């Protein structure tokens, strides 16, 4: 046999071992690749739908996907390969580029959407199927809704790659059947601690669309700043950081529209009654309390806030509810989602000592407790919110049920966002009948591990370890980050948040959100802190962290997320590097253990 023929045979053999070089992220629920060989892709690949493409969202969605495909002519940056059988430079997918192409190239994307009118709201059907057949010129996409079809596009755009020349190909025919495990898949952006500009918000939404995350939880304000223009109270914006660092009503609507065009819901949060000073105090200083107190880490039993600057809405002052109602009503007209987040975390009792209204209320009846005070908030604020839009569901942080200052009775239709004590609190809330959004800080807080932000901190001013056997603030410890250490992508991806839950409890989990609190985040670092770690959550809540045999697939996810990070950057999302580039090019050479089953 000729040497060239042997090389040819070897090439084919390699191709059939590692079926394809690229796999989309999140991994689809079911994907099966064919074996008949690559298919060329015509340029442009045209959209054809079962209606007259009046649906702009679908048309624009495909336009964006095609623009990215054509501009990037993507070459997988980190291919999956068995340990020690890798190509040193996985450029231009050598196997597929040389293999014989199917005779019929792809020239069409045929989309069939069953229900064109389904609105983008909680629980909308996001499933799709995508088929590329050996003898067909069309990529066939079937979806129940436009939103499912958009997800199909972000899958398709990841599997059309460079043919090593000037053209494009799909490595093999493929059948994909896909739908999310959870309807609520989010990241939380905080624009109260630092301002985030619209272009940077759009960048986050681009990354979310590619990783099939469908909820932007927008923590709009905090005690530090109030960036939203409110027509009812134009003075609130005086507490924005500057005239430039504000969101007009039009800006907020643009974010909602940009997100919707990418199958992403925007759920606003106005954190109340705690974390409230900026904005509110401009309307009437008497509806906020303790804003002039020392937040006080010096004497912790007297602290009025968990971080500077202090401030809480006055729960007893009736004027509070008038202002809260008007602000809520106005924002309700801007944010179209049927869910709205009304905060309720970290109520600090000491703060209320500074309120005449509250101290008199306690004096009136000495049996009253801070739990009664929290109940007063629940009883007076929730009806105001619920009267604005009957069909709307409210979200609150779990503190209102599980912190020492919890209320006695919180309606069970309020969705609880769980951030403390991992599985314990998730278990408690779901056992009590609450629907839960998982945001456990030990797994999903993307801001953790960067040290403390409070200044004038003598704890850093230490030259040696007084007790080398004990981890402390500076030596072997978490370095002043209350929720340290840093949550790596593996920490996020490996989180089995339904561990030990009954089936009834599991049904109460609507999904998960990775928060990025912004004390140390602004435009400069937001993308590198969210990405690509948020994509690890994206896959966790879309198709899970286990294979069809129930085995954890983190080691297989490795090459997928390394490639995806390069793909995010190529698409303009400034994701942080996860490894030396060597590890991308040498699959599994950077694993901790050679044993590929070491993650259970
Ligand atoms: C607030 O009042 C309570 C009850 O009187 C008291 O125990 C606590 O020390 C006070 N806190 C501050 C910061 O003054
Ligand atoms: C949940 O936690 C609360 C407060 O710690 C406790 O009183 C309650 O018994 C717990 N409920 C369940 C079902 O675990
Ligand atoms: C799950 O339950 C088992 C058996 O009770 C226990 O040993 C384990 O610690 C629990 N896991 C978690 C994460 O709570």
TrEMBL record:
<dbReference type="InterPro" id="IPR029018">
    <property type="entry name" value="Hex-like_dom2"/>
</dbReference>
<keyword id="KW-0732">Signal</keyword>
<dbReference type="GO" id="GO:0005975">
    <property type="term" value="P:carbohydrate metabolic process"/>
</dbReference>
<feature type="active site" description="Proton donor">
    <location>
        <position position="346"/>
    </location>
</feature>
<keyword id="KW-0378">Hydrolase</keyword>
<dbReference type="GO" id="GO:0016020">
    <property type="term" value="C:membrane"/>
</dbReference>
<keyword id="KW-0325">Glycoprotein</keyword>
<protein>
    <recommendedName>
        <fullName>Beta-hexosaminidase</fullName>
        <ecNumber>3.2.1.52</ecNumber>
    </recommendedName>
</protein>
<feature type="domain" description="Glycoside hydrolase family 20 catalytic">
    <location>
        <begin position="182"/>
        <end position="544"/>
    </location>
</feature>
<dbReference type="InterPro" id="IPR029019">
    <property type="entry name" value="HEX_eukaryotic_N"/>
</dbReference>
<comment type="similarity">
    <text>Belongs to the glycosyl hydrolase 20 family.</text>
</comment>
<feature type="domain" description="Beta-hexosaminidase eukaryotic type N-terminal">
    <location>
        <begin position="24"/>
        <end position="159"/>
    </location>
</feature>
<dbReference type="Pfam" id="PF00728">
    <property type="entry name" value="Glyco_hydro_20"/>
</dbReference>
<dbReference type="InterPro" id="IPR025705">
    <property type="entry name" value="Beta_hexosaminidase_sua/sub"/>
</dbReference>
<dbReference type="GO" id="GO:0016231">
    <property type="term" value="F:beta-N-acetylglucosaminidase activity"/>
</dbReference>
<dbReference type="Pfam" id="PF14845">
    <property type="entry name" value="Glycohydro_20b2"/>
</dbReference>
<feature type="signal peptide">
    <location>
        <begin position="1"/>
        <end position="19"/>
    </location>
</feature>
<dbReference type="InterPro" id="IPR015883">
    <property type="entry name" value="Glyco_hydro_20_cat"/>
</dbReference>
<keyword id="KW-0326">Glycosidase</keyword>
<dbReference type="GO" id="GO:0030203">
    <property type="term" value="P:glycosaminoglycan metabolic process"/>
</dbReference>
<dbReference type="InterPro" id="IPR017853">
    <property type="entry name" value="GH"/>
</dbReference>
């Amino acid at each position: 046999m000729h040497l060239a023929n042997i090389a040819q045979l070897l090439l084919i053999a390699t191709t059939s071992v590692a079926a394809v070089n690229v796999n989309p992220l999140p991994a689809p629920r079911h994907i099966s690749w064919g074996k008949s060989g690559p298919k060329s892709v015509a340029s442009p690949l045209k959209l054809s739908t079962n209606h007259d493409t009046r649906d702009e969202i679908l048309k624009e969605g495909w336009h964006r996907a095609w623009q990215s495909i054509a501009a990037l002519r993507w070459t997988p940056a980190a291919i999956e390969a068995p340990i020690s059988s890798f190509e040193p430079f996985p450029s231009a997918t050598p196997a597929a580029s040389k293999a014989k192409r199917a005779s019929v190239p792809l020239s069409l994307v045929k989309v069939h959407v069953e229900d064109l009118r389904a609105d983008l709201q909680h629980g909308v059907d996001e499933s799709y199927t995508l088929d590329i057949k050996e003898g067909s010129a069309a990529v066939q996409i079937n979806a129940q809704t436009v939103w499912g079809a958009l997800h199909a596009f972000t899958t398709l755009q990841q599997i059309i790659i460079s043919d090593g020349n000037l053209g494009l190909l799909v490595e093999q025919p493929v059948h994909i059947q896909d739908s999310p495990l959870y309807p609520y898949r989010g990241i939380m952006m905080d624009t109260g601690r630092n301002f985030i500009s619209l272009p940077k918000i759009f960048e986050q939404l681009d990354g979310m669309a590619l990783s099939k995350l469908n909820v932007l939880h927008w923590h709009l304000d905090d005690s530090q700043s109030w960036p939203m223009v409110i027509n009812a109270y134009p003075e609130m914006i005086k507490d924005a950081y500057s005239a430039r660092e504000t969101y007009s009503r039009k800006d907020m609507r643009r974010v909602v529209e940009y997100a919707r065009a990418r199958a992403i819901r925007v759920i606003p949060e106005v954190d109340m009654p705690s974390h409230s000073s900026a904005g509110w105090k401009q309307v009437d200083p008497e509806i906020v309390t303790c804003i002039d107190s020392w937040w006080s880490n010096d004497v912790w039993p007297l602290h009025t806030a968990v971080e500077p600057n202090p401030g809480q809405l006055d729960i007893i002052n009736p004027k509070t509810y008038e202002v809260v109602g008007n602000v809520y009503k106005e924002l309700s007209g801007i944010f179209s989602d049927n869910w709205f987040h009304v905060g309720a975390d970290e109520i600090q009792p000491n703060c209320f000592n500074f309120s005449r209204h509250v101290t008199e209320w306690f004096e009136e009846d000495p049996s009253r407790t801070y739990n009664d005070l929290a109940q007063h908030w629940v009883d007076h604020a929730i009806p105001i919110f619920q009267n604005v839009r009957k069909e709307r569901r409210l979200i609150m942080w779990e503190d209102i049920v599980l912190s020492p200052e919890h209320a006695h009775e919180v309606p069970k239709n309020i969705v609880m966002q769980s951030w403390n004590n991992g599985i314990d609190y998730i278990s408690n809330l779901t056992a009590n009948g609450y629907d839960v959004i998982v945001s456990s800080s030990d797994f999903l807080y993307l801001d953790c591990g960067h040290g403390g932000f409070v200044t004038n901190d003598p704890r850093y001013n230490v030259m040696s370890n007084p007790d080398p056997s004990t981890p402390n603030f500076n030596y072997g410890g978490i370095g002043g980050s209350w929720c340290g250490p840093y949550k790596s992508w593996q920490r996020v991806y490996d989180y089995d948040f339904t561990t030990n839950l009954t089936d009834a409890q599991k049904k109460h989990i609507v999904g998960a959100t990775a928060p990025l609190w912004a004390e140390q985040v602004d435009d400069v670092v937001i993308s590198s802190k969210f990405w690509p770690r948020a994509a690890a959550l994206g896959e966790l809540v879309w198709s899970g962290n286990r294979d069809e045999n129930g085995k954890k697939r983190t080691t297989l996810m490795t090459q997928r997320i390394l490639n995806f990070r390069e793909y995010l950057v190529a698409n303009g999302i400034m994701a942080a590097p996860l490894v030396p580039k060597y590890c991308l090019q040498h699959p599994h050479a950077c694993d901790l253990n050679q044993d590929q089953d070491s993650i259970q």
